């Protein structure tokens, strides 16, 4: 990809970078004293460079950004270096010029630092070195490479798509440690150089030097009592999953308790064998046996033997190890989840990699020793995810609020019921608050004062309290898109000190961090932001921008719970059903990119916060004080609110809120305003017809004259809106013409 400097410089600056014009086909900046450029302190400087060097190549001034430059022409060694960078630091935007040479882009954490570099080596007769460029350096990101005379290109994402704040961070110490690893790699591959040993001797991992599998099974069985019928059945299934060779083991265990006595439910070996043939090995694994034994006091090591170094075999062993410690993980929504004591928890990538790293040095077969390098770890994780894949695992989860006391099961027009925590409930977070069935027991003076003080009078306070209570319930119970009429709420007040930000803080404080996101409506069209909504029950964004318009189509999809596609950085695209209730605050209301259609009207609600709380009546940090002292009351309010909207099928939207919403829609849609002011009729005053395109041009001219903050809808939206308008006005018609569509006046008889 190739861009002129003027095309992309402003976007790069908005993304947090410092762009530099670079002489085309060179690596030298086109301006002097470039190391001291500061666009914030020199307003207008970037515009000056854009006018002077519009077609120049584009570089980035480094300092808060650093670049790992792999200056290696041997394809295999260059690939090894790339793998080391990704293994140690994770994925990053990667730029190529003279392939296989490449550069990785990272953000700088802590103080910036000067350039670091390895020694220079000869690899297959060509110089090879790695440099980490930072303070006082620059690097070309778009333009023509001086040697290949071809444009620079990227693996996937570029600085145009990835803001500097989203780059993976690197410190000077991390950079120095990485450089040591890279120097070892280069030295090992260098000409006329002995191979340097990489890594440490095999460790004593959980899978190393395992005993024979059957011996461990028998050892574990000695802790289990076959007289317990449920245990006997579970162990039968588990043993059969290991193969028919375990029939004899099962029979022997079935007729002897740990104390040596015969179980009273044992009748004969033939009866045991007959029951064996009814077991379903596909439903379980040997891990169940060892998990049950561990519960009974067995403390032996994992019994599974690594038979080969295939990715599938290693994944099987790792999964068995995990299953010994609890419920089998689940892979869904592009993430791996594991059940804890109260809820399913996301397993971070680094933790998954540690599972496999523990196997480094493990023996397999007769002589093999496992080397847990990056390629192997990536391959094993791919297989592990496939083994654990359960599409839409969380989709049909029971509705309720998972709290410290248990799971509060919620049903329409029914009293809430508290049930014990369970993996089968498929909950992804736990509200760290205890709840007792029945009315609120503890007094909540701050909560009551908050709800009564943020609205103008008793009537609006009662209306506001109901809908805010329902929003809280929807957020905690994950009801956002499960209602017949899902909504997104904008808490609107023209000034501060009106309580809207405090309510948002209460919502954020009641939910674990993993349960909510903060995606602005203007960012909904970007895949990397949209992915943050997966698994969230609330999306809470403070102070919407009045300048950035809302992407209508994408916003409607996430509010309604339509299946959407998303992509996390350096991961494949995945699909999910959004479940979040959306709550935003705004002093000045935003506009919509494609105007206000019926779909928007059905989905958005304004909650007016028009009352400025007098300074003498304000309670400092009231949200934090409520969260510290009255969480139990908030949870009870949430339960009441959730049941109410489940029973009614909708939120308690007052006429006051409806009026405020309609006023916003009218003010934000300049196309409707243009039509209401007889825009079409004025165009037809002196002519009987006008082309659709000319009408659109006229509309754009009117809007552009309104000021720089205004925007115009797309031509396709304009045509659709005009057709709807004409249907309501019998004096008008739309006819097809050789040059397109025309709006004409009808002759009425």
How would you describe the overall organization of this protein?
The protein is of the alpha+beta class and 749 residues long. The chain is 37% helix and 16% strand. The chain contains 25 helices and 29 strands. Strands 3, 4, 5, 6, 7, 8, 10 and 11 form an eight-stranded mixed sheet that branches. The chain has a five-stranded parallel sheet with strand order 21-22-25-20-26. It has a three-stranded antiparallel sheet with strand order 1-2-9. β13 and β14 form a beta hairpin. α6 packs antiparallel against α7 and α7 crosses α8. The protein starts with a helix and ends with a strand.
In short:
This protein is of the alpha+beta class. The protein has 25 helices and 29 strands. The chain has 5 domains: 185 residues, Prim-pol fold (2-Layer Sandwich), CATH 3.30.2250; 83 residues; 78 residues, no CATH class; 217 residues, 3-Layer(aba) Sandwich (Rossmann fold); 77 residues, Arc Repressor Mutant, subunit A (Orthogonal Bundle), CATH 1.10.10.
């Amino acid at each position: 990809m190739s861009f002129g400097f003027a095309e992309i410089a402003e976007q790069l600056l908005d993304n947090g970078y410092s762009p530099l014009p670079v002489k085309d086909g060179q690596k030298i900046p086109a301006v002097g004293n470039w190391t001291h450029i500061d666009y914030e302190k020199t307003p207008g400087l970037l515009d000056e460079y854009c006018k002077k060097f519009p077609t120049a190549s584009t570089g980035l001034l480094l300092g808060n950004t650093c670049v790992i430059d792999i200056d290696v022409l041997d394809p295999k060694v260059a690939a090894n270096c790339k793998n080391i960078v990704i293994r140690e630091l994770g994925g990053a935007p990667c730029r190529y010029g003279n392939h296989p040479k490449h550069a990785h882009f990272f953000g700088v954490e802590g103080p910036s630092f000067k350039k670091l570099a390895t020694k220079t080596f000869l690899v297959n007769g060509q110089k090879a070195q790695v440099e980490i460029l930072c303070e006082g350096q620059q690097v070309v990101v778009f333009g023509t490479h001086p040697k290949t005379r071809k444009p620079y290109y990227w693996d996937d994402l570029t600085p145009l798509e990835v803001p500097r704040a989203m780059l993976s961070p690197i410190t000077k110490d991390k950079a120095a440690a990485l450089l040591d690893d890279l120097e070892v790699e280069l030295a090992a591959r260098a000409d006329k150089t002995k191979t340097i040993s990489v890594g440490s001797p095999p460790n004593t991992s959980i899978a190393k030097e395992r005993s024979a599998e059957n011996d461990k099974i028998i050892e574990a069985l000695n802790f289990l009592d076959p007289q317990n019928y449920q245990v006997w059945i579970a162990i039968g299934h588990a043993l059969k999953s290991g193969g028919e060779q375990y029939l004899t083991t099962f029979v022997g265990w079935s007729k002897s308790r740990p104390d040596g006595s015969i179980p009273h439910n044992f009748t004969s070996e033939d009866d045991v064998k007959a029951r064996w043939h009814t077991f379903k090995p596909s439903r379980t694994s040997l891990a169940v046996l060892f998990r049950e034994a561990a519960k009974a006091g067995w403390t032996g090591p994992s019994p599974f033997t690594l038979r080969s170094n295939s990715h599938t075999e290693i994944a099987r062993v790792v999964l068995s190890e995990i299953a010994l410690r609890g419920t089998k993980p689940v892979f869904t929504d592009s993430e791996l989840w594991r059940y804890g004591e109260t809820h399913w928890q996301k397993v971070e990538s680094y933790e998954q990699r540690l599972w496999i790293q523990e196997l480094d040095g493990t023996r397999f077969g007769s002589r093999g020793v496992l080397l847990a390098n990056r390629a192997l770890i990536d391959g094993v994780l791919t297989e592990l995810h496939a083994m654990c894949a359960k599409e839409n695992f969380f989709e049909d989860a029971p509705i309720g609020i998972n709290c410290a006391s248990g799971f509060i099961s919620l049903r329409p027009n029914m009293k809430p019921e508290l049930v014990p925590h369970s993996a089968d409930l498929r909950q992804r977070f736990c509200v760290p608050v205890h709840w007792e069935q029945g009315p609120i027991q503890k007094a909540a003076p701050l909560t009551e004062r908050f709800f009564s003080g943020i609205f103008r009078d008793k009537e609006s306070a009662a209306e506001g309290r109901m809908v805010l209570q329902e929003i809280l319930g929807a957020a905690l119970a994950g009801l956002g898109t499960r209602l017949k009429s899902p909504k997104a709420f904008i808490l609107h007040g023209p000034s501060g000190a009106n309580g809207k930000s405090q309510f948002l803080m209460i919502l954020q404080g009641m939910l674990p961090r993993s349960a909510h996101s903060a995606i602005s409506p203007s960012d909904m069209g970007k895949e990397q932001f949209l992915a943050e909504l997966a698994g969230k029950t609330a999306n809470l964004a403070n102070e919407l921008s009045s300048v950035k318009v809302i992407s209508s189509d994408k916003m409607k999809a996430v509010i309604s719970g339509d299946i959407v596609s998303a992509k996390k950085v350096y991961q494949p695209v995945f699909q999910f059903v959004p479940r979040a209730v959306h709550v935003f605050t705004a002093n000045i209301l935003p506009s919509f990119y494609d105007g206000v259609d019926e779909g928007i009207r059905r989905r958005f609600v304004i909650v007016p916060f028009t009352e400025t709380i007098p300074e003498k009546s304000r309670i400092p940090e009231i949200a934090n004080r409520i969260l510290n002292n009255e969480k139990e009351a908030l949870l009870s309010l949430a339960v009441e609110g959730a049941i109410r909207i489940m029973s009614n099928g909708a939120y308690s939207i007052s006429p006051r809120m409806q009026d405020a919403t309609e006023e916003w829609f009218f003010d934000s849609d300049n196309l409707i305003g243009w039509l209401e002011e007889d825009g079409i009729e004025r165009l037809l005053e002196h002519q009987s017809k006008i082309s659709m395109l000319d009408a659109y041009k006229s509309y754009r001219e009117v809007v552009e004259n309104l000021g720089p903050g205004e925007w115009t809808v797309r031509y396709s939206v304009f045509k659709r809106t005009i057709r709807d308008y004409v249907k309501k006005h019998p004096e008008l018609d739309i006819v097809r013409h050789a040059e397109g569509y025309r709006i004409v006046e009808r002759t009425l008889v």
